[in-house]
Amino acid sequence: MKPLSGVTVIELTAHVAAPACPRILGDWGANIIKIEPPSGDPFRQQAPLFNMPYTDEVNPAFDMANINKKFVCLNLKTAQGKEVLYKMLETADVVVTSYRTETLKRMGLTYEELRELNPRLIFAQVLGYGEKGPEKDTAGFDATAYVARGGLLGSINEKGESPINSVNAFGDFQVSICLASGISTALYAREKTGKGDKVTVSLYHTALYMMSIAVVSSQFGNQYPKSRREVGNPFNNTYKTKDGRWMVVCIPEYDKYFNKFVTLIGREDIIGNEDFCTIGEIYRRGNASKMIDIISAGFAHKTIDEWMKILKENDFACEKGYLPTEILEDPQAWDNDCLRKLTYPTGEEYILTTTPVRMASVGDMEMKISKPLGYHTEDVIKQYGYSDEFIKRLG
After folding, report:
1. How far apart are CA 298 and CA 317, in angstroms?
2. Region 357-362: what's the mean pLDDT?
3. Which segment of the chain is annotated as a signal peptide (predicted)?
4. What digits encode the pLDDT tens for the residues 24-51?
5. Closest CA to 117 of 130, 131, 107, 102
6. What sign does the CA torsion over 260, 261, 265, 269 have?
7. Can you tell me the distance from the alpha carbon of 97 to that of 9, in angstroms, rounded to the nearest whole number?
């Protein structure tokens, strides 16, 4: 039995951050019922933005956040649609929503109202900026609340260069993991108290937490963005290889491994050189940028594959800057079930990422692709005691 078997999650979400959370809970055994309006989750139509195919049968972009769910279509602007939702929520364990608080108030679906309906319910909400402050009612997306206001846009580019064009939904998937952890904790607490709880995660706060070192250290003068020529340790830096590829080297103990590392890059002539061999001296003497130039020149003589082999054989942490197309062929990803091939009804196979939290009791999670809008509506509603005649009137 999976850890969340018997837990029913009602999902009132759109786009990525909130839907990706129930996907994780579904991996752990929860029964996920995704409720969409007649227009559907807008993300069903987003695939062309990523150069991906989409039809009712093939929609890998939508699947990324919507694996292993049941799909119910309800018009919550009608009395009948809202009646069915309330009926579901009376016995549900969790409701996950990305609706803004003002919208929930208009719909009669606030935490306070649902707590009266079902005191055991875990109410989980994804917010843009949080529950308080001047932006609490502002529309928030990954690109704005997370990447821009959260500090990534202004921090992780090369100093003096233009801002990054961040990968779509980068923060959304991190939010989903945070919300799943909060829901799981609330479910555990409910076993002891019998009472539900309210769990919120915002894109903005999640970004600040992920950027903790940059945010906290900034008050002491550690400023971002940084130049690769101004790093604190030349052995923790990015370098370009002979074939034009970039890689990162991470050797925190500069002084300890100086002689060994400079030997690998063909600079035995500076072994023990007091101008360069300790962190303290290279900065006291203003030689950090010179050391970076020395390393850069060394890396320019060999290809990325040659450097990866040399450094890993010497137990130095390093990696090339993988392209997504290279990740699709990475044996490390396949051996650890980070990637999975799924066969669609058309017979085509496409690769999707799996969720990262693994439990021995669960093993490799099952992945059932998404279904068209409203695919499970009739079957699910019947389980709540509604007749065929009612379902026909529901439309």
Report:
1. 17
2. 93
3. none
4. 999 999 999 999 999 999 999 999 999 9
5. 107
6. negative
7. 11
Question: Quick one: which of 214, 200, 211 has its CA closest to 17?
Answer: 200
**Beta carbons within 8 Å of 221's beta carbon, 6+ residues apart:** none
Structure tokens at 146: 């997370």
How far apart are alpha carbons 264 and 258 in whole angstroms? 10
Residue 43 has phi, psi (to 5 degrees) of -70, -15
Domains within the chain, CATH numbers bracketed: 8-212+365-393 (3.40.50.10540), 236-322 (3.30.1540.10)
Residue 243, token pair as written in the block: 């074939």
Three-class SS state of 338: coil
Which range has the worst mean pLDDT, 11-20, 228-237, 318-327? Answer: 228-237
Spatial distance between the Cα atoms of 346 and 344, rounded to a whole number of angstroms: 5
Per the structure block, which two tokens stand in for 188?
Answer: 């555990």
Q: Output 88-92 pairs: Cβ under 8 A, ≥24 positions apart.
A: 88/10, 88/33, 88/35, 88/384, 89/10, 89/114, 89/117, 89/118, 89/121, 90/117, 90/118, 91/8, 91/118, 92/8, 92/9, 92/10, 92/118, 92/121
Q: CA 95, CA 118: separation in Å to the nearest integer?
A: 11
Rounded Cα distance between 277 and 197, Å, is 56
Strand pairing report for 339-343 and 349-353: antiparallel
Helix or strand run (H / E) with residue 103: helix 101-107
Structural contact between residues 12 and 372, judged by C-beta atoms closer than 8 angstroms? no
Residue given tokens 């799943």 in the structure block: 180
Here the tokens at position 367 are 């992945």
**SS3 label, residue 250:** strand
pTM above threshold 0.85: yes
Give the catalytic positions in this structure: 172
> What are residue 317's DSSP bridge partners?
250
CA distance 374 to 376: 6
